[in-house]
Amino acid sequence: MNIDYTERLKPATDDFMTIHLADQGEGPSLRHCTHDYQVSCGNCRLASICLPLALEQDDIQQLDNIIQRSKPLQKNQHLYREGDEFQSVFAVRSGTLKAYKTTDDGREQVTGFYFPGEILGMDGISSNTHASSAKSLETAAVCEIPFTSLEKLSALMPSLQRHFFQLMSREITEDQQLITLLSKNSADERVASLMLSISTRNARRKLSATQFRLPMSRVDIGNYLGLTVETVSRVFSRMQKMDVLKVDNKEIEILDLEDLRGMANLGS
Question: 47-175 has which fold?
Answer without folding.
Answer: Jelly Rolls (2.60.120)
